[in-house]
Amino acid sequence: MAGRAYDDDRLSQAAHLYIAAFDSANQVSGDVEPQYVEGLRRAWNVACKLKERALAEYVFEKLEPYATGEETARNAEALQSMALEKLEEFGFSHDEVQDMSELLGVEPSSDDDSSAPEAESFTYADLIGYDKTIKRMRERGIGMGDDGEFSEFMEMLHKRHGLESIPSVETILFRSKAREDANRFMVATAGELGLPVVRMFMDESPQGYPVLCIMTSREFRGKARFSRLGFQGPAVLMLENIDLWGAPVSVDSEDGEASFTQQLTRGAREAVNFIRASVEHPDVWVLASCSEEKDLEAFFYDILDPVDIVQIDTPGKRERAAIWQHACALFPSLRFLDRDELISYSKHMTRFDMYTAARHAVEQAYNESIRKRVYVPVTRENLYEKIASYQPLESKEYRALEDTLVDALRVELDKKESDFLGKGGK
Predict the structure, then answer these.
(1) Distance CA 105, CA 99 (A)
(2) What does the alpha-carbon distance between residue 358 and residue 201 come to, in Å, rounded to a whole number?
(3) 69 and 129 part of one domain
(4) Do 200 and 165 share a domain, yes or no?
(5) Are 235 and 256 members of one domain?
(6) DSSP structure string for 295-357
(7) pLDDT tens digits for 126-178?
(8) Same structural domain for residues 141 and 9?
(9) Residue 231: beta bridge partners?
(10) Which of 27, 190, 365, 402 measures 20 to 30 Å from 371, CA to CA?
(11) Which stretches of 90-215 are DSSP H helices?
């Protein structure tokens, strides 16, 4: 039946019939006869001809155990090419597709050597309010590039030990109350290391499915620095918000590792193997971030082992002072507020929440200015209301803010009453 559909050029129907025949034979016996495997190959060819990538991915998974290494590599390249063609259909530029193709190991046919904008990169010198954490990282030898004495010490170690740089022996996991704080510090750490970077993070597709996204720094462009098998030289692998990735369901059995692997798709298996290869590579720094609000799955501790946890605490008094000074430089209308009160009331807040509260207050004053067609400054009450929304209801800071706002409201009502009576109101 499948062969007749194929001969009649009913290709899509033929492909599904070939797959159904293979599945039926596979259920009867694990040793599938060659004719059904050959039918599966025909289904693969049809999927490629019709550019049905989802179907091709499905057939690839079934065909992989019966294919040679050369055939599997050729089929994988065909899958990647279909994915890149689909990206161009969705409106991605040629440069963006070029970057993705280099990341996946596909060589696009083009002489255009233009390059896309670089990813964000910065160092500890660009951070505000991380002094204590930076000090802990410098104890590890990271962030000491401007210390001449330490540089001389490192040169001595390089000569005596024969290593060109600090060896990476542990995964560094940055944990913070706000994952945004951990992510920012992780990027700055990568900047301090000064190596090519691969960033992996989870996003959501338009259909609502989780998608693992990969971005690379400019240094990877046009160079065989990494592939499915891992990095080819010194580099940094950043795993962003790894607590949100999700892990396979643990199965208590002697073959637990196999149980994990069986639950993963081919792409997920490749990602896990790539991460493991990076952890084992002596010249690759693996950096990960997560929120302290959520426990990290044991699965991730296993693939990242050994793990060195760097806890990023909420900013102390001096760090909060630096943050508010920076916020006032960003938003000049905040400069007239009591800095000491801001420092006190923002205790236990994360860096991200402090900047967010400031920006929301400024945006509200800005929009009100547009409505009234006159400059409206950020008021004390406006900003304190925003800060209070980030403080726990039972906290001392929230109660102090509440008292301050109530007092301000009482003063405003008294003033309105006084003005009303002064005008002869009754």
Answers:
(1) 10
(2) 28
(3) no
(4) yes
(5) yes
(6) PPPHHHHHHH-SEEEEEEPPP-HHHHHHHHHHHHHHSGGGTTS-HHHHHHHTTT--HHHHHHH
(7) 999 999 999 999 988 898 877 778 878 878 888 888 777 777 778 999 999 99
(8) no
(9) 226
(10) 402
(11) 94-104, 131-139, 148-161, 179-193
Amino acid at position 228, single letter? R
Report the number of distinct structural domains present in the chain: 3
**Token pair listed for 202:** 């989870």
Distance (Å, whole) CA 43 – CA 59: 7
Residue 158 belongs to a domain: yes
Residues 188 and 122 sit within 8 Å (Cβ to Cβ): yes
Does residue 261 contact residue 269 with C-beta atoms inside 8 Å? yes
Quick check: is 105 in a domain? no
Q: At 376, which CATH number?
A: 1.10.8
DSSP per position, 260-287: HHHHS-HHHHHHHHHHHHHHH-TTEEEE
Q: How far apart are CA 2 and CA 21, in angstroms?
A: 8
Long-range own/partner contacts, residues 403-408 (CB < 8 A, 24 or more apart): 404/341, 405/381, 408/380, 408/381
253 plus 398 within the same structural domain? no
Range of the domain at 134: 124-312
Place of tokens 């560094």: 172
Q: How far is CA 146 from CA 123, 135, 138, 195, 410, in A?
A: 12, 14, 11, 17, 54
Beta bridge partners of 150: none
The 10s digit of each residue's pLDDT in 35-58 is: 888 988 999 898 888 888 778 888
Type and span of the H or E element at 40: helix 34-49
Domain termination residue (choose one: 98, 114, 139):
98
